């Protein structure tokens, strides 16, 4: 358990009628002020986790604590938690101010205070000038901001966001990501956001929880997830990773040497525990960590290019090596990639110092 956990989920399970397992024993501590994302493929339990935290869904077993107090049985409106829904769920017949005021009106606060808080919340999301506008007159991005203002006006301890930006086009989405991040930093409120966009999660989260089939695969910072994925699922889900089934040959100087499908290569030994010679493992290698080296370089191998795809600054090269190994290699478009085309043979090595995770076989 983390010392300053604001919200603690302990052994939370959710089984739906008919026996569908939504959540399979979730243990998760969320820190005060953290921007946490829940990331994973469709059906992995992201929304269910959010709904359990919000109180819309009761866990089948397990407990939720907020500031150390058991809130498992509290009704949604008795929890200091607000939700921003994917479709915003704004009231079309109310104007912007009325929408934002809605949560406050339920709390029976004095009119003067409500008015000030609505104005402050709209100011925070940059919509002060739209206070009297009708919801139907607003753009998608503006509606998103109204939904945010409506959620933060109640000053929740935890703000839950379910795919809050998925209805926006790519450009606006990127802009809103940065706005969301800076809003969260200014408020200091704990944000828990569901997304299935890994780029979004990687760019704005303090920590990401990767979920798979109702379980947590790994909870870590974006850099940790990228550099040290704990499972093959995470390695395959975050960015692109070559996963080579390999046999450990032995240690030479500061390199661990492996063989995979007749290909031999060495990776930096640091960070990796000792292994027995002959042990089976999976070596994860990022496309950018493969490089072209001169023929005859030790620990290099030949690969035949099967396709070359434009990837902005890099070319993404798909190639075949050994008897049946397919690898993905990123080469700088202006450098090594310049001559690259289908059918040619490249001599491939590993960038020295590349951080290559070793995963279960
Ligand atoms: N009310 C329900 N009744 C029965 N099964 C449900 C219910 N809600 C969710 N499930 C099931 O629980 C699992 C997790 O669903 P959940 O909605 O949490 O997934 P998700 O990660 O949010 O997926 P998506 O990315 O598609 O929104 C799925 O198998 C889903 O079919
Ligand atoms: Mg969902």
Secondary-structure map:
Elements: E1 5-15, E2 21-31, E3 35-39, H1 46-54, E4 61-66, E5 69-70, E6 81-84, H2 96-106, H3 111-124, H4 140-152, E7 158-162, H5 170-187, E8 190-195, H6 198-204, E9 207-212, E10 215-220, H7 222-227, H8 232-237, E11 242-252, E12 255-260, E13 263-268, E14 280-285, E15 290-292, E16 301-311, E17 314-321, E18 325-332, E19 345-350, E20 358-359
Parallel strand pairs: 3-8, 3-9, 6-7, 7-8
Antiparallel strand pairs: 1-2, 1-4, 4-5, 9-10, 11-12, 11-14, 12-13, 14-20, 15-19, 16-17, 16-19, 17-18
Helix pairs in contact: 2-3, 2-4, 3-4
Bound molecules: adenosine-5'-triphosphate and magnesium ion.
Residues 16, 20, 22, 40, 42-48, 196 line the site of adenosine-5'-triphosphate.
Features:
single chain; 361 residues; alpha+beta; Rossmann fold; OB fold (Dihydrolipoamide Acetyltransferase, E2P); 2 domains; 5-stranded antiparallel sheet; 20 strands; binds adenosine-5'-triphosphate; binds magnesium ion
Task: Give a structural overview.
- There is one protein chain.
- The chain is α+β, with helices and mostly antiparallel strands.
- It has two domains: 232 residues, Rossmann fold; 120 residues, RNA polymerase II/Efflux pump adaptor protein, barrel-sandwich hybrid domain (OB fold (Dihydrolipoamide Acetyltransferase, E2P)).
- Helix content is 23%, strand content 36%.
- It is built from eight helices and 20 strands.
- It has a six-stranded mixed β-sheet, sandwiched between helices. A five-stranded antiparallel β-sheet has the order 13-12-11-14-20. Strands 15-19-16-17-18 form a five-stranded antiparallel β-sheet, with no helix packed on it.
- Strand 4 and strand 5 form a beta hairpin.
- Helix 2 crosses helix 3 and helix 3 packs across helix 4.
- The radius of gyration is 25 Å and the shape is elongated.
- The two termini are 30 Å apart.
- The structure holds adenosine-5'-triphosphate (ATP) and magnesium ion (MG).
- Magnesium ion (MG) binds next to helix 1.
């Amino acid at each position: 358990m983390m010392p300053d956990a604001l919200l603690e989920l302990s052994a939370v399970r959710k089984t739906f009628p008919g026996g569908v397992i939504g959540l399979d024993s979730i243990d998760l501590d969320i820190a005060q002020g953290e921007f946490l994302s829940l990331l994973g493929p469709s059906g992995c339990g992201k929304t269910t986790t959010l709904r359990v935290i919000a109180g819309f869904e009761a866990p089948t077993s397990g407990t939720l604590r907020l500031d150390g107090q058991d809130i498992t049985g509290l009704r949604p409106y008795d929890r200091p938690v607000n939700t921003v829904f994917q479709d915003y769920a704004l009231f079309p017949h109310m104007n912007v101010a009325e929408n934002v005021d809605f949560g406050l009106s339920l709390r029976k606060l004095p009119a003067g205070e409500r008015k000030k808080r609505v104005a402050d919340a709209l100011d925070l999301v940059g919509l002060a000038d739209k206070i009297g506008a009708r919801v139907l007159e607003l753009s998608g991005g503006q509606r998103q901001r109204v939904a945010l203002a409506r959620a933060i006006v109640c000053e929740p301890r935890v703000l839950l966001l379910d795919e809050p930006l998925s209805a926006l086009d790519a450009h606006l989405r990127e802009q809103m990501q940065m706005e969301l991040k800076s809003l969260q930093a200014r408020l200091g409120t704990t944000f828990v956001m569901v997304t299935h966009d890994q780029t979004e999660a990687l760019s704005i989260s303090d920590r990401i929880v990767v979920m798979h089939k109702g379980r947590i695969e790994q909870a870590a910072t974006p850099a940790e997830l990228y550099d040290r994925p704990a499972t093959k699922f995470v390695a395959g889900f975050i960015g692109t990773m070559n996963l080579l089934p390999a046999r450990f040959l032995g240690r030479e100087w500061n390199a661990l040497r492996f063989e995979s499908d007749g290909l031999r290569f060495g990776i930096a030994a640091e960070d990796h525990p000792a292994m027995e010679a002959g042990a089976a493992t999976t070596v994860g290698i990022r496309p950018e960590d493969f490089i072209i080296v001169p023929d005859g370089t030790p620990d290099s191998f030949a690969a035949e290019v099967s396709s070359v795809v434009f990837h902005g600054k890099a070319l993404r090269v798909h190639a075949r090596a050994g008897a049946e190994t397919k690898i993905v290699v990123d080469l700088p478009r202006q450098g090594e990639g310049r001559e690259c085309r289908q059918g040619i043979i490249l001599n491939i090595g590993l960038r020295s110092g590349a951080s290559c995770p070793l995963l279960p076989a």
